[in-house]
């Protein structure tokens, strides 16, 4: 069975004052039955990791460079994230793919770098609205999985997050049947490639997840948690999602 994970992606939001929200979340779940991680902007990774030390809430980054070090101004390596106290990193998010032209091959290289440094890589896949309307969803997601993941994996170091691009931050959510179809197909594709190890890979859903719809989403087969954007910025909102995952 895959472990359950509630991951929060703060994106380009949050200042040091926002650490109070992270602490409030940790206080609300001193001994959770699921994994919890918050991924703030790079400027907050070290301070959040310090603030959450000794709690059950982990800290992650939102991206990493594929190289260990070097002349890469403005970039952050996986090793630097580990040094700052991170245990996870989000890779291949659709906003990175769109805004920075990240390809599957680059995401794969970053994933290999993250795992080598000891991080848990949360690898994102998902189709655009045009691809969904053209009936290409499963083919697109399968191709992204094939290109973005290494040929050999450590199931304890990889998480997959399915985020339909058209549902991120829009308030639009796929039907439960659509979510289930993609997650079932992802599990099948991963099983074909990695065998039994694929059964323990957590498959997260992301895209306009909130406390009001979380329980229904987590009841879908092969949904092992969520990658949450806006609703993870406030402890009160994210707590409802974490609670729903614990009860699933």
Short characterization:
This protein is of the alpha/beta class and 248 residues long. It has ten helices and eight strands.
How would you characterize the overall build of this protein?
- There is one protein chain.
- With 248 residues, the protein is an alpha/beta fold.
- The protein has a single domain (5-247), classed as Aldolase class I (TIM Barrel, Alpha-Beta Barrel).
- It has 10 helices and 8 strands.
- It has helices spanning 19-28, 42-51, 78-84, 94-100, 104-117, 129-133, 137-148, 176-194, 211-218, 235-247; strands at 5-9, 35-39, 57-61, 88-91, 120-125, 158-162, 203-205, 225-228.
- The radius of gyration is 17 Å and the shape is globular.
- The chain starts with a strand and ends with a helix.
Order of helices and strands: EHEHEHEHHEHHEHEHEH
Q: What is the CATH T-level topology?
A: TIM Barrel
Q: State the name of the first-level CATH class.
A: Alpha Beta
Find the count of extended strands (DSSP E, 2+ residues).
Answer: 8
Provide the spatial order of strands within the biggest beta sheet: 1-2-3-4-5-6-7-8
- The outline comes out as globular
């Amino acid at each position: 069975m895959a472990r359950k994970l509630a991951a929060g992606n703060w994106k380009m939001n949050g200042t040091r004052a926002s650490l109070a929200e992270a602490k409030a979340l940790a206080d609300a779940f001193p001994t959770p039955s699921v994994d919890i991680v918050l991924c703030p902007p790079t400027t907050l990774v070290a301070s959040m990791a310090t603030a959450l030390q000794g709690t059950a809430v982990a800290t992650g980054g939102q991206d990493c460079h594929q190289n260990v070090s070097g002349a890469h101004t403005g970039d952050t390596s996986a090793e630097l994230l580990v040094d700052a106290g991170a245990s996870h990193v989000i890779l291949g998010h659709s906003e990175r793919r769109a805004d920075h032209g990240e390809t599957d091959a680059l995401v794969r290289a970053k994933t290999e770098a993250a795992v080598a440094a000891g991080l848990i890589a949360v690898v994102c896949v998902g189709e655009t609205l045009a691809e969904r309307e053209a009936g290409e969803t499963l083919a697109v997601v399968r191709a992204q999985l094939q290109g973005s993941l290494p040929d050999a994996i450590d199931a304890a170091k990889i998480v997959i997050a399915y985020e339909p691009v058209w549902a991120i931050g829009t308030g639009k959510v796929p039907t439960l049947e659509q979510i289930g179809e993609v997650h079932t197909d992802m599990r099948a594709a991963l099983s074909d490639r990695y065998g039994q190890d694929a059964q323990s890979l957590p498959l997260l859903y992301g895209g306009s997840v909130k406390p009001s719809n979380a329980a229904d989403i987590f009841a879908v087969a092969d949904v092992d948690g969520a990658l949450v954007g806006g609703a993870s910025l406030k402890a009160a909102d994210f707590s409802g999602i974490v609670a729903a995952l614990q009860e699933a």
